Amino acid sequence: MTFSIVARCVRTESFGIAISSSSPAVAARCAHARAGAGAVASQNITDPRLGRQALDLMAAGATAEAALAEIHARTPHIAYRQLALVDPSGGTAFFSGEHTLGRHHAVAGPDAVAAGNLLADVRVPERMMEAFLALKGADLGDRLMTALTAGLAAGGEEGPIHSAGLLIVRDLPFPIADLRIDWDDAAPIAALEKAWTIYKPQLEAYVTRALDPAASPAYGVPGDPDRI
After folding, report:
1. 2-203: which CATH architecture?
2. Do 139 and 35 contact (CB within 8 A), yes or no?
3. 90-116: string of b/e by CB count within 10 Å (b at 16+)?
4. Cβ distance 146 to 152 under 8 Å?
5. Is the pTM of the predicted complex or chain greater than 0.85?
6. Is residue 135 within 8 Å of 143, Cβ to Cβ?
7. What are phi and psi of 201, to 5 degrees?
8. What pLDDT digit, counting tens, does each position of 24-81 carry?
């Protein structure tokens, strides 16, 4: 009931994940990323704790493969989980337990993993990876959204999707983008794409407002002073 892509940007050393599902609020449970640690999708029959545990392990120096092996060894009910990881060096790992739902598949590429379950077509993760790699050097958020849209075009999930999310982190103790469509009856990925298109030009302004308010640009809303 989910398809996703986790990735690292070599140029900016940022990490991100784009994800969609028939379930509500998928990004709230399944999308995990931390500056300096990596990105993780914990999906299928979801245990959000696994995403945080994987990030802790990679932050402590474990590779994606080592982190996955540790989680696999110590986690009850691991057969119900699907995981995708990328570490600070761009190493990748993925796992689909024997109780992963429906058609499922995962594929790794340079600095990225795409994975899904209950897929309309088993090739959905491959199409996502192809779209991601075709935009090498582009903005990470653009690459992730292009990959998510390609996954939908390739068939997406077996049934209708209702939620989507985009999470991006870099060298800051907070996400630079955390956009979510928690429920949409029509087109959550299109709604997320619109949110990203609006948010992207303002992203650096929000970072500046957090780090140096005196240097931040005006809000550009009615009643806004020239500078805050």
Report:
1. 4-Layer Sandwich (3.60)
2. no
3. bbbbbbbbeebbebbbbbbbebbbbbb
4. no
5. yes
6. yes
7. -65, -20
8. 999 999 999 999 999 999 999 999 999 999 999 999 999 999 999 999 999 999 999 9
